[in-house]
């Protein structure tokens, strides 16, 4: 039986144990992480936490709706056993109808064939090989930028102060707007800095040129928030940061997860390290849409 539980009704220990033991395990879904990135959240639970589906939600003008939080690319169903498409759809059907709209991104192992679901692209790089073998798959631009950056007199700090990271974000010109709400979430993640959250920085002449907040568990390194100054870009430090990650964690079972992107320019940058495309599904539907669920074909 699938039941809906509010956050305060959740057995947190059993929930987090399910996430950790699941074959889809991702840090995004842990209770402590959702407590930071989601305004509110609830969970669909199968039996005694055999599988779970977190539901991050907001309320605006008395209307409740499910929406994907910032800094949380994939959620969906997490299960201790392989979950079939029809079981994913079964969870979706159990979402309470008082949620006016559902905007939710599922993890890459959740497959579905429903009208309002669309495929999105992510790029990942296996770190099983040694750094030399991985470097061979860089394209010529990445090799050039890495060699250029390596010649400079830089310092890599693997425990950058969170306040310095936050100040750097505020000061560095960006080609996008980081509104106050997602920035507040990012600051909370940076200040937490636990065994899963890391901040690295590259300095030259004691000036910060590039920094990266990333997540790491026993499965993945998630390239969550890179910030590169204009001078840092010119000096190849965007490439250097990724390469230092690869050098540190190569010859392991980890995956370097670039978190996107559907934007071709960014996707091209990730592919230039040899990263491969990995697709996942995103659902965007109003519950009054009568075509919300298409029954999967029976084999």
UniProtKB/TrEMBL annotation:
Alphabetical list of Gene3D superfamilies matching this protein: 3.40.630.30
The name this protein goes by in its record: N-acetyltransferase domain-containing protein
Lineage: Bacteria, Pseudomonadati, Bacteroidota, Flavobacteriia, Flavobacteriales
